[in-house]
Specification:
The chain is of the alpha/beta class. Bound molecules: adenosine monophosphate. The site of adenosine monophosphate has 16 residues, from strand 14.
Length: 398
């Protein structure tokens, strides 16, 4: 079902409540990475162009339910002012008389940033009274561009939608819903899912859901070793989740029974220690010495996975293939990034999600060659896992 988007709205003369994700890293009161603010600029610029009066809200960090200068959104508001090249007003509380007065003083195209919504414990409780107060700061129009919070039923994401006439997706949110929704709802085939990262436990739902939808799944990273151990193979000192062995066995059995193409690495780069300068060697699967740990996929796996990726028309990738933070063990992840970029140039749609795989793609300089880089780690995992996101469900249907 398609959702209302900011493009459908008439905003001139109206205060619009914009839930953004300005959850940026701060150091000594200065924003150290403004990516999240920049990502939402197209939505903000469109709202300004449309003559809206913008009331912006976000969370930042995990304050303990009360005001805490460490988590103030003021530095983010200052950063936004620079990026927009126009004044941005700030209210020191997201509800109450100051926020009300400052929102009412806005003229068409002007911007107000509210203080951190998580300074009120009611935010995470999705409290109705608090949501109503937030809604009172706009003229019946809500736009959500905070995909990273869409899996949370919080007041500024979900509760507020009850008290407005129109609840629409911002451009960033719309793009997330379109790409991920299409991949899991109606993918162009073959659809290849690539899953890596440290643990199976973080991605169980994604593995199970994508096994129902994708044509092939390529597993890498630390999670591969739990699958190896479940098959009775030696894994040396590699990362393993003992309590997930049964689950890994069940997933392997399901794949076999359904004739699903679930690929595991065929060789591994191993080292004696979890260290950037640890001497590395490559061994075949099942041959990891007792005193070594697997820290990356090997060249045979890179070739095998790259060939699968080259055939794909839809690619979803979440989680690195190895300990990519250490250059010696980053080769697998970088090679997969290259394969995904090449397939995309050849016409495939690619979606990369999860903080670490996104970092790896950025590190490799290939980000521009990926169709869609998902901004919300947790939200994209839940979406790929087949869950409905409350922040998306709550938006007005077209
Ligand atoms: P995740 O957040 O679950 O996507 O996991 C990302 C983390 O998994 C990164 O910090 C990687 O260094 C780590 N990782 C990937 N492969 C391995 C491995 N073979 N052993 C240990 N950690 C790994």
């Amino acid at each position: 079902m398609s959702k209302l988007t900011i493009q459908d709205l008439v905003l001139r003369g109206k205060r619009v409540f914009l839930r953004v994700d300005f959850n940026v890293p701060l150091k000594d009161g200065v924003v150290t990475d403004d990516t999240r603010i920049r990502e939402t600029l197209p939505t903000l610029k469109l709202a300004i162009e449309k003559g809206g009066r913008l009331v912006l809200a976000s969370h930042l960090g995990r304050p303990k339910g009360g005001p805490d200068a460490k988590y103030s959104l003021k530095p983010a508001a200052q950063k936004l002012e620079q990026l927009l090249g126009k004044p941005v007003a700030f209210a020191s509380d997201c509800v109450g008389p100051e926020a009300e007065a400052k929102s009412k003083a806005l003229k068409d195209g002007e911007v107000l940033v509210l203080e951190n919504v998580r300074f009120h414990p009611e935010e995470e409780k999705n409290d109705e009274g608090f949501a109503k107060q937030l809604a009172g700061l706009c003229d019946g129009v809500f736009v959500c561009d905070a995909f990273g919070s869409a899996h949370r039923a919080h007041a500024s994401v979900v509760g507020i939608t009850k008290f407005v006439k129109q609840a629409a997706a911002g451009l960033l949110m719309e793009k997330e819903i379109a790409y991920i929704g299409q991949a899991i709802g109606n993918p162009t085939r073959p659809f290849v899912a690539i899953l890596g990262g440290a643990k199976v436990s973080d991605k169980i739902e994604v593995v199970e859901n994508l096994m129902k939808i994708a044509d092939a799944m390529l597993i890498g990273g630390g999670m591969a070793y739990t699958f190896f151990k479940a098959q009775g193979l030696t894994i040396g000192k590699s990362l393993v989740e003992e309590d997930k062995l049964d689950l890994a066995r069940k997933i392997l059995a399901d794949a076999k029974q359904k004739n699903f193409k679930l690929l595991l690495p065929v060789d591994n780069v191993v080292a004696a220690e979890f260290k950037a300068d640890a001497p590395a060697t490559t061994v075949d699967v099942g041959a990891i010495p007792a005193d070594r740990m697997g820290l990356d996929i090997g060249p045979k796996t890179i070739a095998l996975y790259s060939a699968e990726i080259a055939k794909a028309k839809t690619i979803v990738w979440n989680g690195p293939m190895g300990v990519f933070e250490m250059p010696t063990f980053a080769k697998g992840t970088l090679a997969i990034a290259q394969a995904v970029a090449a397939a995309t140039s050849g016409g495939a749609t690619s979606i990369v999600g999860g903080g670490d795989s996104v970092a790896a793609v950025q590190q490799s300089g290939l980000a521009k060659k990926i169709s869609h880089i998902s901004t919300g780690g947790g939200a994209s995992l839940e979406f790929l896992g087949g869950r409905k996101l409350p922040g998306v469900e709550a938006l007005t249907n077209k």
